[in-house]
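Annotated sample (chain length 106).
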Amino acid sequence: MGSWNNHDIMEIRTVAVGIVAIKGVENKYYLAMNKEGKLYAKKDCNEDCNFKELILENHYNTYASAKWTHSGGEMFVALNQKGVPVRGKKTKKEQKTAHFLPMAIT
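Output written by the structure step:
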């Protein structure tokens, strides 16, 4: 496992019941998703920054856009094996690329 640096740490903040915003600790930008399912960074938090957090049976979490869907299906935050964001339109809840394991940083 590689070493941690502040660019790796994301803070998850509750916005409403089941809804969170994800913010970079070091750069202070929020994770956002547009209507095309593309992830991007946003300085000010708005509806694009709201994600539905779901804790799965395997204890991993998924984060789906609270605002946008594609053909009626949810669009999830996902990273491929190289750490590159996957467009939300190509994601499903069952995909391991969309599973995250939040950890408390002390």
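Annotation: The chain is about 0% helix and 40% strand.
Annotation: The domain at 10-98 is CATH 2.80.10.50 (Trefoil (Acidic Fibroblast Growth Factor, subunit A)).
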